[in-house]
Amino acid sequence: MKREILITSDGSTTIHLPDWNEQYHSKHGAIQEAYHVFIRAGLDKVQQEITTIAQPNLSILEIGFGTGLNAFITFLEAQKNKHILNYIGVEAYPVNAEEIQKLNYVAELHATNFQSIFDAMHQVSWDEKHQISDTFSLLKRKQFFEDIEDTNTFDLIYFDAFGATNQPELWTEAIFLKMYEALKGEGVLVTYSAKGSVRRAMQAVGFVVERLPGPPGKREMLRAIKKE
Known about the structure:
The chain is of the alpha/beta class. The chain has a single domain, classed as Vaccinia Virus protein VP39 (Rossmann fold), CATH 3.40.50. The protein has 7 helices and 11 strands. The strands form 2 sheets. An 8-stranded mixed β-sheet has the order 6-7-5-4-8-9-11-10, with helices on both faces. A 3-stranded antiparallel β-sheet has the order 1-2-3, with no helix packed on it. Strand 4, helix 2 and strand 5 form a beta-alpha-beta unit. It is globular. The termini are far apart.
């Protein structure tokens, strides 16, 4: 499948799949979307619930590791807050090294001091846990989403799969049941999608779902919480 590097509206890059008319991140702003959906609606929400813990230890699952943008931004947030983050990124089809070199996230995030961290995220081996920094560990799992079998493991899930138009099998009750089971009680799942069918699939497996204002270019997004 043909793949192109696209500059999005906020100046940050993404990978565009013209045959699917699909991008790894929003064409309205890759970095803006990542912060809005995954950090502000996800990580910040979880961190607000644990303010009584001196140095909380959080586990995050990303569905669609892709370009590593969400992981890198999460690392930057961990640097600010000194929280210990265990990050697991699941990806069946890893992005190749040539494409990674064309992404401009480090420059656009004014994070040149952490260029080596971004590089390490892509260079470390798959299916092994690596200590990227004192506060951030990374385990990249080369795995299909339907093969996830984690139970009561994660505080937060970034659900960043390709859209339901091209991969409807990734947005089903069966997949969201796996996500529900993978979360701890009161765990949070966030996604850029706001489709009614996605919301209903989440609710069918037990999630309490809320619609939130979406990132630039999208009216709404979804946040789901595992209530026990």
